[in-house]
Automatic annotation (TrEMBL):
Primary subcellular site in the record, as a coarse category: membrane
Matching SUPFAM superfamilies: Adenine nucleotide alpha hydrolases-like (SSF52402)
One function term, GO molecular function aspect: transmembrane transporter activity
Keyword set, alphabetical order: Cell membrane, Membrane, Transmembrane, Transmembrane helix
Domain UspA, first and last residues per copy: 467-624
Origin species: Natrialba magadii (strain ATCC 43099 / DSM 3394 / CCM 3739 / CIP 104546 / IAM 13178 / JCM 8861 / NBRC 102185 / NCIMB 2190 / MS3)
InterPro entries on file: AA/rel_permease1, APC_superfamily, UspA
Membrane-topology descriptor: Multi-pass membrane protein
Compartments, record wording: Cell membrane
Xref: Pfam families: AA_permease_2 (PF13520), Usp (PF00582)
Record-level GO cellular component terms: plasma membrane
Region (Disordered): 534-559
Name of the molecule in the record: Amino acid permease-associated protein
């Protein structure tokens, strides 16, 4: 991507930004609180948290070298997982970094009061003034910001190194006992608390477009800063525990005025004297200032990057004519920070961001999976995260575990920000964009490839396919012949036994047995026979007495060497739907062909016999809505949800081969669907052409009213093949889209339900709708 941003940040400045974004409250505020939960094992908690953050750092490094654009984790999540999750990541990161920057500016109060008690009443104006200063610096020059950050972090690291070196000789072994004990009580809770100390590690990617040689600089800065910061955390907390009798809040570090202050400063005073404490206070103030500065720099790049993608107003994308910085984004971010400082309970709100940052880490790991498995032609990172996908799975699993330890309030805060982001996306962004993430495109490609493999396997199979044609008292003579015709057409592609069974309803009998009565009578007159057979009837065939015995076994001596064998039975029963299911189960049939009962399809709430048949059939089912089928020039096959079910295509191909028809593969997508979705579907249709045995064409329509659009494009088709979509209570409450389509067209229609696809869950249906509709 061509950009006017200046690439001014080298490895030292980039590393300093990453360290500065991490070191702050994580070392000067959280150790005492975490100590109260886990005791000396808080040292191990910092180490575990650093290890759990490592997968996200590796994943972010890989994506940053492939897409060195400002916006960091937002860009990766948006490109990999789509604009909705990208909006959540972008808005959430913007708010959370702003909150944390504001917290850093007012979080140094105890340290500032320690060296200058008289300044306590001026804390708010000082914090606002620093926020304004950092805003101006970020507007004027990113390079100046990076240089300032490098200087701040340098002094801070030296001061903390002085504390570690000076304090190590005075560490009391008994106070550090259990520092690395995995079995310590509260270790997971402490890990969840200090996890946020590393949240800034991937924030350097937010300014990737302003980094020199990003392919090598970003991975080195990100991984190096994480290692340095983890070592600092572990050493400082270890020393502080070893020299202080109690590091937890209220553990004895209370000055004369009675106000509790930061324990790290008093731990330093215990071993280094007053001069050492002053050094640590200076380091703390510098650390918190660097956190605020890095937070403002990084936070402003999220709306900047989102504006380039159309997710927020384009004003955020504008660069200053002179300074070439996103001045408006920086100014708004700085203004938001100042409003937070002046009005909001920053500490509590900042805790909400902790949970959200973990969610972002999970999304970052997931985004790598989306890119690797998705359809991204130009994804070519210079740095590749090792041990894929185990690194990402560990990172996501660790994030989930940590989330469970953070408490209800922070989690609900993250949920609230997520809901706000979703509302913004739906209300503002969605009408303005036309693209999708690599994961969705890749998932759709995988679904299509899987469907192609299953379709090819079904067409190439030489296993016998046995069909039960279920005739009832309500089936008209014309419909009976059409059901038989469609069933025998299957024999053109597969060796098929067609069992025509007439299910006769009889009155209830008090002493009736458990089983229906089965008769092997001579075929009725309506069945084709002799010289009067129609052209579609298999040549040189008569309707036979049953050759199938119990359990679907056959008498091979009575089976002619043909592709299709037609048999006839009559069954008397009190409930023909139950008899159909029992007979199909007993005979081990592969397919039931029955007439669609229009009246029963409208018995929505309590269902009817057809619903019971669909829910209990042991095999595939075709319901035929006969409108006088007399051959076909065009057979239209509709993909109701996701890819085509192979049985639809096999049946349509068989009928088209017998009638000399052309198949029209008809599929609907939403009017605002990305172009890549149409391209994927068209490629999928072209692959299907090579499997079908008859001529075929593709029709992909864009519509906001799926049923109306499909009905219009079914047009003059002679046969419609669609799906049943839903069964059970969901069908009764919500209706069946396929049923509504059949009722809106004036043609013979066949509704297909496969046994394997009948039990598709709600999540699967939603996923298919998201991928294909």
């Amino acid at each position: 991507m061509t950009s006017d941003l200046q690439r001014d940040l080298g490895l030292p400045a980039t590393t300093a930004i990453a360290i500065g974004a991490m070191v702050g409250s994580g070392i000067f505020i959280l150790p005492g609180i975490a100590y109260a939960s886990a005791g000396p094992a808080v040292v191990l908690a910092y180490l575990i948290a650093g290890l759990l953050v490592l997968p996200a750092a590796l994943s972010a490094s890989e994506m940053a070298t492939a897409m060195p654009e400002d916006g960091g984790s937002y860009v990766y999540v948006e490109r990999g997982m789509g604009p909705l999750l990208g909006t959540i990541a972008g808005i959430g990161n913007w708010f959370m970094l702003s909150f944390k920057g504001a917290l850093a500016l007012i979080g140094g109060i105890p340290y500032l009061v320690y060296v200058a008690p008289g300044l306590a009443e001026y804390i708010l104006p000082i914090a606002l003034g620093l926020a304004l200063l950092f805003t101006i610096l970020n507007v004027v020059s990113t390079k100046s910001t990076g240089s300032l950050q490098f200087a701040i972090v340098g002094v801070m690291v030296l001061a903390m190194g002085y504390f570690v070196v000076g304090g190590l000789p005075d560490v009391t072994p008994s106070q550090t006992a259990g520092s690395f004990d995995l079995a310590s009580e509260g270790i997971l809770a402490a890990t969840g608390l200090v996890f946020v100390s590393y949240a800034g590690v991937i924030k350097v990617a937010a300014v990737a477009e302003e980094v020199k040689d990003p392919g090598t600089t970003i991975p080195r800065a990100m991984i190096g800063s994480l290692l340095v910061t983890t070592a600092l955390y572990v050493l400082i907390v270890y020393v502080a525990i070893g020299v202080a009798p109690d590091l937890s809040p209220g553990g004895g570090f209370v000055p004369e005025g009675g106000e509790e202050v930061a324990s790290i400063a008093y731990a330093a005073e215990a071993v280094l004297g007053e001069f050492g404490a002053v050094i640590i206070v200076i380091a703390a103030l510098l650390a918190l200032a660097s956190t605020a500065n890095a937070g403002l720099l990084s936070a402003s790049r999220f709306p900047f990057a989102m504006a380039r993608d159309g997710l927020v107003p384009e004003r955020f994308e504008h660069l200053h004519d002179r300074f070439k910085t996103p001045a408006f984004a920086v100014a708004v971010t700085g203004g938001v920070m100042m409003v937070m400082i002046a009005t909001l309970p920053i500490e509590q709100v900042a805790k909400f961001g902790s949970a959200f940052q973990i969610l972002v880490f999970i999304l970052v790991n997931l985004a790598v999976v989306g890119f690797r498995e998705g359809v991204v032609d130009d994804y070519d990172p210079e740095f590749v995260a090792p041990l894929y996908p185990w690194t990402q799975l560990v990172g996501m699993g660790g994030g989930v575990i940590v989330l469970t330890q953070m408490g209800t309030v922070p989690f609900l805060g993250a949920v609230a920000i997520t809901l706000v982001s979703i509302a913004w996306y739906v209300g503002y962004a969605r009408p303005r964009i036309d693209r999708e993430g690599a994961a969705r495109a890749g998932a759709r490609e995988n679904v299509s490839r899987s469907a192609l493999d299953r379709t090819r396997e079904l067409f190439e199979s030489d296993e016998e396919y046995d069909v039960l044609v279920a005739i009832t008292d309500n089936t008209s003579p014309d419909a009976r012949r059409d059901l038989l015709r469609m069933a025998t057409d299957m024999g053109r592609l597969r060796s098929t036994t067609v069992s025509v069974v007439e299910f006769v309803d009889v009155p209830h009998r008090m002493f009736d047995g458990d089983h229906a009565d089965v008769f092997a009578d001579d075929p009725p007159e309506w069945l084709p026979s002799g010289d009067e057979t129609p052209s579609w009837f298999p040549e040189n065939h008569d309707v036979h007495r049953p050759a199938r015995t119990s359990g679907g076994a056959t008498d091979d001596d009575r089976r002619p060497v043909t592709d299709t064998r037609i048999e006839y039975r009559e069954i008397d029963s009190e409930d023909h739907n139950r008899a159909i299911v029992d007979f199909a189960t007993y005979g081990n049939y592969d397919l039931i062909v029955a007439e669609r009962d229009r009246a029963q399809f409208h018995q929505r709430l309590f269902g009817g016999g057809t619903d019971w048949l669909l829910e209990n059939a042991p095999c595939d089912v075709l319901l035929v809505d006969d409108d006088g089928f007399d051959g076909a020039d065009e057979v239209t096959v509709v993909a109701n949800r996701g890819a085509y079910d192979p049985l639809k295509l096999l049946f349509a191909d068989a009928v088209a081969e017998e009638t000399g028809a052309e198949i029209n593969l008809l599929q609907a997508i939403s009017a605002d669907a990305p172009e890549s979705q149409r391209e994927t579907i068209e490629r999928y249709h072209e692959e299907l052409f090579s499997i079908l045995t008859v001529p075929a064409r593709s029709t992909v329509i864009e519509t906001d009213d799926e049923i109306a659009g499909l009905a219009r494009f079914v047009g003059d088709a002679d046969l419609l093949v669609t799906g049943i979509d839903r069964t059970g209570m969901s069908a009764r409450l919500l209706g069946r889209p396929g049923n509504r389509l059949v009722e809106r067209v004036d043609t013979t229609a066949v509704m297909v339900q496969t046994h394997d696809g009948r039990r598709s869950g709600l999540l699967q249906r939603l996923l298919m709708n998201h991928l294909f509709n």
